[in-house]
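Final report, Chapter 2: Outcomes

The project's central promise was a pipeline that accepts a single protein chain and returns its three-dimensional structure in a standardized token representation, suitable for archiving and comparison. That pipeline is now operational. To close this chapter, we reproduce one record exactly as it appears in the project archive, with the input sequence first and the structure output second.
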Amino acid sequence: MNTKIQDIMRKAVLIGQDAVFVDALRKMIIDKTNSLLVVNKSGKLIGEMQSFDLIRQVVPGYVVSDEIAAHFATEEIFKDACEAAKNIPIEKFMNKDPKTITLESSLMEAVVIAMSHGQSRIPVVDEQHQPLGVLSRTELKQAITKFINIEEGSTKETMAEPMVRKAGAVEPLTSFLLPVDGSEPSKRAVSFSGCLTSALADRVQTITLLRVLAGGYLKRHLADMAKVRVKGEIIESDIFKTSREDHISKNITPMLAEAEAELKKFGAKAPINQKIADGVPAEQILQVAEEGDYSTIIMSRRGVSAVREALLGSVTASLLHKPVHQSVYVIGAKVEILKAGACPIPRILVPLDGSPHAVAAVREAAILAKCYGNAVAEVTLLNVIDLARYAKREHTNQTQEDILNEAQQIFTDSGISESKIVSVVEYGTPGEVILNTAKKKQVNLLIIGRRGRSAFQELFMGSVSREVVQRCTDSTVGVVSG
């Protein structure tokens, strides 16, 4: 099989040697990891630490290994221990001699290191001892299953892209990524997210506000100023860096703080993180979503017409054109109810075609409907019989009945009354029928499954979900990847 270390290692999360306890804790939470590789200013690996190393720092010496003493320790004692640990340099408690491997190492070498040294994660380094990645017990376990052909079909996709954990393995509606830019549509998306995450309560584990700096503003105004000529040689000055920091301090940080306050005002209970990234917005959003294993991305519309959006493109359109594993919610231009404790999605439409992607959309819609309970007025289940593929029939056949019954059962199992569920079968072009039904029913949320075609296939074959997102501008549209 010729399996190489570089084929199965995952991306490492790095932290500088000058960091302290609270920096490491924050890094682990934001990057959703239990392991950090510590590097010096030259990027050379000098240590490694696990979440257990952090936990060990908040245990007072007099209760170490003493469960009786720990039983009588008050919450105040625990709080004081956490406070005392905040500024401990990580160099004082990190593992300063982690065993490493290189890209040329064998799998057996990695297994022996994991066993003999008890390392759950083994750094992969280059010739200069700079980290290239990390190999965990998960990757070793997957390699073992691959060699002995255990459930080969179910592990094949995982082995194909070992550097990225699939968001499909994350429970729906548990971790939210919210790109923001301070615009009115963005503020509407923040308010909507506050309503949603408040209703989902403890189901939501984390919310991250993301601001992507595309660099256009700074490059336009500072490109020439950032270069000086000394004796005929052009030298880059620090003006770009300092101006970027000034821009973040004066504009980005207050905007993120305002967005966080808005989420809390609407009742969001989950921990809220703030993240700033540089690059192409759609690419950065996707990268952050994948690396953080987010279940849900909530986007705002630019406020332009469907025609202009189709011609000019948008961050949302660009994102949906990529292989997104998360559910993407595009907030409608006309959200009727946005206030704490209210339900912004009283009328829900779910198009069905019998595919696993549509079933995934039904399950996600059922979670939302359940969390709002009696505030949901109606759920419409729509099965469109495409006239381009089927001859028109007077009555639905057993296949349509099965599709609708399965969806209805999912909703009733979630506690939604049958009286609120309306099943509809229509003939026509799927995109047109879905849009017309959404308008007729005045739905607040249209949640649809995404078939997962490649960008090339969508470009030449068309996509119902993409058409719905582009043209259904008033309602919020949720695109669920099965």
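Archive annotation: The radius of gyration is 26 Å.
This record, like all others produced under the grant, will remain available to the consortium after the project formally closes.
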